[in-house]
Amino acid sequence: MIMRMTRRKDSINIMQLNDTQIAQFDERGYLFFPDLLSDDEVAILQRATPELLNRQGPEVVREKEDPTAARLVFGGHVFSEPFRCLSLLPRLLNPVRQLLKDDVYLHQSRMNPKQGFGGGAAWDWHQDFPPWHIIDGMPEPRCIMASVFIDDCTAVKSPLLVVPGSHRHGLMDSKLHEDAKGKGYSLMHIDHATTARLADENGIEALIGPAGSVCFVHCNLLHGSANNVSPWRRAIMYYIYNAVSNACTGTERAWHHNNRDFTPLQPIDDDCLKAFA
Ligand SMILES: O=C(O)CCC(=O)C(=O)O
Which of 94, 106, 160, 170 is the most buried (most CB within 10 A)? Predict the structure, then answer.
C-alpha cells in the first residue's frame, strides 16, 4: 500500500498523518511512504554508509558465513552525524509520535546492509517485540521500527516481507534463534505453523520501493526476509522508537541494544541533511 505524507516546508511541526493513515497503521501494522527522502538526501546517506559498515567493535554483528561482512551495525545514530540527523527529522519523528500518541526516544538503531551474492543471509519469521519485552523489560508493544531504505529495495534483492495485520495477534510464542545465541543480539523466531496460519489469513507483502522510501512498522508485525542472492546491496537503516511512557526497565544489555537515555527526542530542521552535501 503506497501512501503520501502531507509535507509543507514552512514548519517542521506541520507534517502529520491523517486519520485514514493512522487507521491503516492500526489495521495493517505498517505504513509505507515511497518518496520520503529526496535523491540528494539519499546520496548523502549512501556516502555515510561505508563508515558504518567498516566499523569494528561490539556494535557490529557479523554474517555467519562471512565474518568480514557486517550483518547488523547497531548504534549508527551515535557514530554518524548524518544518521543522527536522519533519526531526528520531523518526517520520521512526527508520524511516530502521532502513532504512539507520546513523546519517543530511540531504543536502538541498526543498519542491515544485506550484502549481495548471498552475503546478506536470511531472517527467519519473527516479531521484534519479544526480546525487547523479555530481555530489556519493555512493558508494552508501543514501539515502532522506522525502516529507511538506503538502497533501492526491489523484488530481486530479497525485500523485507511482512504479514499485514499480524501485529493484532499480540505477543506470539517465540524461541531464541540458533544463530543469535551468544552473539549479543536477540532474534526470536516464530514457529512455522503459526506463520503459515497468519500468512494464509492475511497474505504476505514485500516492502519494495526506491532508496529514500520509509516504512513505519509496528513492533509486533511478523516479518522476515530471504538470502540476498542478487549482486547488489540492499541496506535498510532501522530506527526503533519507543514511547517515553513505555521505557525499558532492564539493564542487562549494552546501550546499543537497550538505550537507557529516555529523554524525549525533539525534531530538528527537516532540511538538516543538506548540510552534509
Ligand atoms: O532487513 C531485513 O532483511 C530483515 C531485518 C529484520 O527482520 C530485523 O532487523 O528485525
Answer: 160
